[in-house]
Each structure stands twice: as C-alpha cells, then as structure tokens.
Write a structure and sequence with these properties.
The protein is an all-alpha fold and 171 residues long. It has a single domain, classed as Four Helix Bundle (Hemerythrin (Met), subunit A) (Up-down Bundle). The chain contains six helices and no strands. Helix 1 runs antiparallel to helix 4, helix 2 runs antiparallel to helix 3 and helix 3 packs antiparallel against helix 4. It is globular, with a radius of gyration of 18 Å.
C-alpha cells in the first residue's frame, strides 16, 4: 500500500502542477495588480534557485558514483543549499505553486496551487522516512539543525551560526 500511496501522490502532484502551469498561461490576467505579478515572478525565480542548486550541491559533496545521476548521493549533504533547508526541490515546487497564482491572478490557478503546495509538503515526510532509514542518527541530528522547507528560518540559523563562529575566533 505504501508504494501505491506514493504513486497516487506523485500522480496528483504531477497533474496538478502541469494543469497549474498550463492554466496560468491560458488564464493570465494582463490587467492584474502589477506589484502582485512582480512578487509572483520573484517567487518563481527563487523556486528556480532552490530547484537547481541541489543538482550541483549533490554532485560536489554527495559522493555520487561515477556515471550516476545526482540523486544517487551516498553521503549526507548538509552544506550549500542543504544548510538552509532539508528539501530544496520540494520547496521549489511549493514556491511554484505559490508564484503562479500571483502572476496569473486567477482563482483556478490558486486552487491548483494549494493542491501542489500541500502535496509537495506532505511528500517531504515520506522523503524523510526513507532518508532516516538510509542515514540514521546523522540525519536525525541534521533535522534538528536545518528546517524542512522554511528557507527564511534556515537563512537566519545559518547566519546566526556563522556569526557565532566568527565570535569564537581569536583575534
């Protein structure tokens, strides 16, 4: 049943995300609030950053075997974007789900965005169960240091940690 649930969630997420993108294009409101549209674009650009950085981060620090894709990391990575959030690519999906309704300013795109955001967030729990099984206590400690998808909290914690390290250095 667990595998069936994962397939169902993936299908819902994929269909909702694709429908949201298509409808955001088709139902775009050119007379919408420009400030809201611009905020939506900022959020979409932010999603691109969180969506693409993990590829390079895993390749650099994840000890990916030669010839394998970045998702085949063999080491727990807690640097780079993974020092800010534990699930940057799920966060990217959530941000897309938020950004597209702001750009299109249509209720149907917003409803699909809620579905995308909720399913993507729920998927992080399944991902964490499998990652805990894979990396054990090391991942549990990582979970205490780095937020799941709250990138603002992650940035504050990272800056706080760096500030404390700077304070501990002898002059």
């Amino acid at each position: 049943m667990k595998n069936g649930k994962m397939i169902l969630m993936a299908a819902i997420l994929t269909l909702a995300a694709v429908a949201q993108i298509v409808l955001a294009i088709l139902l775009y409101n050119p007379d919408g609030n420009v400030a809201v549209i611009n905020l939506g674009w900022v959020i979409l650009w932010l999603s691109a950053i969180f969506g693409w950085l993990p590829i390079f981060t895993f390749k650099k620090w994840g000890k990916v075997p030669q010839g394998k894709g970045y998702i085949h990391t063999t080491a727990l990575v807690d640097r780079g974007v993974y020092a800010i959030v534990r699930h940057p690519q799920y966060l990217a999906g959530i941000l897309i789900g938020l950004g597209l309704p702001l750009i299109s300013q249509h209720w149907l795109v917003a409803v699909l965005g809620v579905v995308v955001m909720v399913v993507a967030y729920l998927d992080t729990f399944d991902e964490e169960r499998s990652t805990i099984a894979r990396f054990g206590d090391e991942y549990l400690h990582y979970m205490q240091r780095v937020p799941r998808v709250n990138f603002l909290l992650g940035i504050v914690r990272l800056l706080w940690k760096r500030g404390k390290q700077d304070d501990e250095r002898p002059d």
